[in-house]
Amino acid sequence: LQCQECKQINYFTKKSKEMEGKLKLKKFCKWCRKHTVHKEGKK
């Protein structure tokens, strides 16, 4: 998962094949030092 503010890749996760669209979660970014929206990026 990639932070939408600083574009750093902070988390790695798996998702099921049935899930459509990109994964979007609010997680802590150690670079921004705050909770931000993280989206699924390129593999």
UniProtKB/TrEMBL annotation:
InterPro entries: Ribosomal_bL33, Ribosomal_bL33_sf, Ribosomal_zn-bd. Keywords: Ribonucleoprotein, Ribosomal protein. GO terms for cellular component: cytoplasm; ribonucleoprotein complex; ribosome. Signal peptide: none annotated. GO terms for molecular function: structural constituent of ribosome. One of its GO terms (biological process) is translation. It comes from the Bacteria. SUPFAM superfamilies: Zn-binding ribosomal proteins. Belongs to the bacterial ribosomal protein bL33 family. This is Large ribosomal subunit protein bL33. The lineage of its organism: Bacteria, Candidatus Nealsoniibacteriota.
